[in-house]
Specification:
283 residues, alpha+beta, two-stranded antiparallel sheet, 13 strands
Length: 283
């Protein structure tokens, strides 16, 4: 058949970052690779449309399309009736949540108006949707050393891809939509699985695990205040750096160049306005 599936028991799932690693191992030599969240609706011929959009980028074939899909409430059998203008991932912030420990979170900026001739560049890859040539999996293999980690994967993936020579673009149209399923729907949460696995119900223990694992992301991004190799070794957390060089940056561009290009000041925990992204001036 055309579908390959890896089934895991809930207790073996180890979180979304690990799920993406497992899913990437199902690649069987196909030309393109798409990563999405679940609970989606698809516009007719969505795969062909995204393939053509990828080919419309100036950096093709070393291009990545990425966005946060728009949301929907009422289910329609998985069918998206109308395509909408895309939005560019042009903003970020250092989270103020204790659970997320000042990790960089990305978000949308100025969207497309509908008359643009080709896709324009953005600095970020969203974990919820990206589309690229499958060579991406060879150049930027998913990191299997981020169990129980819910935050931080997007900035790390963005930096790893960009330094490996991939250029990131926002698609001009949304041909998929996502049901974001807010907490008021009362559905199970990821941290519930962690609690059942370790016999410690509630989000508290899951948060503790994430705070440890997120130090791997911070080491790569360059949080000198907490997460240099020396500081992690002193506190006994050096284990989070397992094979970090293999799952680290490429050698086409430097991480320092990325941070300057994306207007991110890690030392002062500030994200500045990315003018070129919001104006769509980089093709």
């Amino acid at each position: 058949g055309q579908v390959r599936v890896l089934y895991l028991h809930e207790n073996e799932s180890l979180g979304p970052a690990m799920a993406r690693y497992y899913a990437s191992k199902l690649w069987g030599g196909e030309t393109y690779f798409a990563q999405t969240d679940s609970h989606l609706e698809f516009y007719k011929d969505w795969d062909e449309l995204y393939t053509n959009e990828l080919k419309a980028t100036k950096a093709y074939p070393k291009s990545v399309l990425s966005s946060y899909p728009p949301g929907f409430n009422e289910e329609n059998g998985g069918i998206l009736e109308k395509a909408t203008n895309g939005a560019r991932l042009c903003t970020c912030e250092f989270s103020s949540s204790d659970v997320e420990a000042k990790i960089i979170r990305i978000n949308t900026g100025v969207g497309y108006h509908g008359e643009e001739e080709r896709p324009t560049q953005i600095p970020f890859i969203a974990a919820g949707f990206f589309f690229a040539s499958a060579e991406f999996l060879v150049d930027v293999p998913f990191d299997p050393y981020m169990p129980w980690c819910f935050m931080g994967e997007e900035i790390m993936l963005s930096m790893r891809a960009w330094t490996s020579g991939w250029t990131i673009y926002a698609p001009r149209k949304n041909w998929i939509a996502h049901q974001y399923r807010p907490g008021r729907m009362g559905l199970p949460k990821f941290w519930g699985s962690v609690g059942r696995l370790f016999g410690k119900p509630g989000p508290g223990f899951s948060n503790q695990l994430q705070l440890k694992m997120i130090k791997r992301v911070k080491y790569l991004v360059g949080y000198k205040d907490c997460c240099t190799r020396e500081k992690l070794k002193e506190e006994g957390s050096e284990l989070v750096l397992q094979e970090v060089d293999h799952y680290g940056f490429g050698n086409v561009r430097t991480p320092e160049e990325y941070l300057e290009w994306a207007q991110i000041d890690v030392d002062n925990k500030k994200c500045r306005r990315i003018e070129w992204c919001n104006t769509g001036s980089l093709e």
